[in-house]
Design a protein that fits this description.
single chain, about 525 residues, mainly beta, 8-stranded antiparallel beta sheet, 5 helices, 39 strands, about 50% strand, elongated, signal, CHRD domain-containing protein, Cupredoxin, SOD-like_Cu/Zn_dom_sf
């Protein structure tokens, strides 16, 4: 079954790649067939991606003729000899499905070709070349007249064509270990979007409802948009986004600015069990973050970290992670003004720490009283964090963990960023923090500090490792996100127990390497 999932995902990737990569305008003159229509020299080609068979794909070429007719030529690769493959233009997008609008020529399996010249749809509605380029439709090519359910090629056309612009969001595992994935939104010519959910390790034969909700995941909110359910056999869901469930316009541009998050659920009967989740739009994390130590205070054995992460809208996700908290407890937490030695009033209320998991997450956009606060302001704030035993009078007086933040920590706790490119396969090139076009530098990192490496190294995965050398083995993943990246931000919050020496290395090229010296 895992092989089947992989096979189907490869086919989907091929469809998307070909649809955005092969469509083109062609203004070359075409020699007409004897006694046939004469081309104006204007044409448009759309890609037809693989569906049931990954080896079969092709193109659909729309040709404008001088007599106002349109010639539609299909050309497929690797069709079996002797087969005959019916083809149609349907209404709507391929993700939505729709009735047949126009019957095309049957593709001859021996040649992979078909051609038909038309002036009207099947219902005799006249259609022009320009109208066809703006048509709300898609093409299906079927296995045979006896097996129309099996598609050998498919592609969106007209206003539904993909522009090649897309945005991907990570969906993290939640209730079910190992189930995670991504949501990718592809822009269409008409401004709508193809939404593809690609979820790993979904159980066979399951159907997993999925939605876009309002607000951030830590806040939760009402359902704004309902996707097609994720197929457990393939891990895939494809939906067309044109409007929210309430009818509000919701296309590609709106997705990028939306205040929302995605939930993928276990089943229609178990909507309370979320198997994958991720923030989208303005709530996406930028990769910038800073961590502060929360030291043991009144209860021995309880300590941890507070991590502040920046969102695109400049608000902050605050995560508290404590060790040693008793199961079943709930530990109130707050940000106070001034430093811990001085003490001060509460300025931000945080979600209580769950004693069983030791975790609390809070979306912070404002102080108590309503004044707005940004991530950047938290980097230099005069404040500290208290985590309390419980919400009783005695419990609030008992502080189980405490730590200064912002300006009170003293230099060096804010995120330090390096921009990393490559010089062929010989070196990583670093810029930032005093480095200018430095090849494979050795860098000193400080325990407790956070470092980001903004990667632009196609073909050269960047790994932080405990042992120097190529490959992905010996990857050091404690405090590291996106290890092995080539185009995203690798973030490393150096643990307090990190070894004195770590390394960075390209997965494939031995010369692309350097040493991280870890200090206190």
């Amino acid at each position: 079954m895992k092989q089947f999932k992989t096979f189907t995902k490869v086919m989907l990737a091929a469809i998307l790649l070909m649809t955005v990569g092969c469509s083109n305008d062609d203004n070359s003159m075409i020699n007409p067939e004897p006694d046939g229509p004469m081309s104006t020299g204007v044409s448009k080609t759309y890609a037809l991606g693989s569906v049931a068979n990954p080896d079969i794909s092709g193109t659909a070429k729309f040709i404008e003729n001088t007599d106002n007719s349109i010639t539609i030529e299909l050309e497929l690769r690797n069709t079996p000899a002797g087969g005959m493959h019916p083809a149609h233009i349907h209404f709507n997008t391929a993700a939505e499905g729709g009735d047949i609008a126009l019957t095309l020529g049957t593709v001859d399996g021996s040649t992979g070709k078909s051609s038909v010249t038309i002036t009207a749809l099947n219902d005799n509605t006249p259609i022009t070349y320009d109208a066809l380029l703006d048509f709300d439709g898609y093409i299906n090519v079927h296995l045979s007249a006896d097996d129309l359910e099996t598609l050998v090629a498919q592609g969106d056309i007209g206003q539904n064509e993909l522009t090649g612009v897309s945005k991907e969001y990570t969906l993290n595992e939640k209730a079910a270990p190992g189930i995670d994935g991504k949501a990718t939104f592809y822009e269409r010519v008409n401004g709508e979007a193809l939404a593809v959910l690609n979820i790993n390790n979904t159980p066979a034969d399951g159907a997993h409802p999925a939605h876009i909700h309002l607000n951030t995941a830590v806040q939760s909110g009402a359902i704004a948009y309902t996707f097609k359910s994720v197929d457990g056999n393939t891990g895939l869901s494809s939906s067309n986004l044109a409007q929210l469930d309430n009818g509000t316009v919701f296309g590609y541009a709106e997705i990028l600015e939306f205040n929302g998050y995605i939930n993928v659920h276990l089943s229609a009967e178990a909507l309370g069990t979320i198997v994958a989740q991720g923030d989208i739009g303005q709530n996406e994390l930028t990769g910038r973050k800073v961590s502060y130590e929360l030291a043991t205070k009144d209860v021995a054995g309880i300590s941890g970290m507070a991590t502040f992460e920046e969102r695109l809208n400049e608000t902050t996700l605050v995560t508290l992670e404590l060790v040693g908290t008793p199961d079943g407890g709930m530990h109130p937490a707050h940000i106070h003004e001034n430093d811990a030695a001085t003490g001060g009033n509460i300025i931000v209320g945080l979600t209580p720490v769950n004693g069983t998991t030791g975790i609390s997450q809070t979306q912070v956009a404002s102080f108590v009283g309503g004044a707005l606060v940004t991530y950047e302001e938290f980097l230099t704030i005069d404040a500290y964090i208290n985590v309390h035993l419980d919400d009783t009078a005695t419990g609030l007086a008992t502080i189980v963990a405490q730590g200064n933040i912002g300006a009170n920590v003293g230099g060096g706790t804010s995120t330090k960023n390096y921009d990393v490119t490559n010089s062929g396969s010989s070196a990583y090139v670093f810029n930032g923090q005093g480095l200018t076009n430095s090849s494979n530098p050795n860098i000193t990192l400080k325990r407790g500090d956070t470092y980001t490496f903004t990667m632009n190294t196609p073909g050269h995965p960047f790994y932080i490792k405990s042992v120097q050398g190529t490959g992905s083995g010996n990857a050091y993943n404690v405090g590291v996100t996106n290890n092995g990246s080539v185009t995203t931000v690798v973030t490393f919050t150096v643990p307090t127990d990190a070894p004195n020496t770590l390394y960075y290395n390209c997965e494939f090229h031995g010369p692309m390497t350097g040493i991280f010296t870890i200090t206190n």
